[in-house]
Amino acid sequence: MDTVVKSMLDEDPEDEKKGLVIFGRDVSKIPCFRESFLYGISSGVGVGLISFLKTSKPLLSQHIGVGTFAISTLITWSYCRYQWSKQKFDAQLLQEALKDKIRYEGSVVEKELENKGVLKSA
């Protein structure tokens, strides 16, 4: 199931979980936050360790690890947010189309739209 559809279905006010709050905002409710930071942390640690094993220079390895963390976090965050926004936009279009289909069902307008090819009969 798409993440946008899950977020639309999971809007239960009773099921409020306490998450990590930074600057007054619950980061567990921000889409893509967890995934992008886990990818960033794991890649930063991995590349930092590999660079330390190759060069034996701890300060250089720290810089490489932190840089890798920052770059990989930003890349995965951007890609995930783009995909999430695209899914949300598509879900809104689908929702509007279904509302129109329900609104015009069984009317003369529905027959006119089907003749034009705007609405497809099921």
From TrEMBL:
The keyword Membrane applies. It comes from the Eukaryota. It is found in: Mitochondrion inner membrane. Signal peptide: none annotated. The chain crosses the membrane at residues 36-53, 59-80. Keywords: Membrane, Mitochondrion, Mitochondrion inner membrane, Transmembrane, Transmembrane helix. One of its GO terms (biological process) is mitochondrial respiratory chain complex IV assembly. GO terms for cellular component: mitochondrial inner membrane. The keyword rRNA processing does not apply. Belongs to the COX20 family. This is Cytochrome c oxidase assembly protein COX20, mitochondrial.
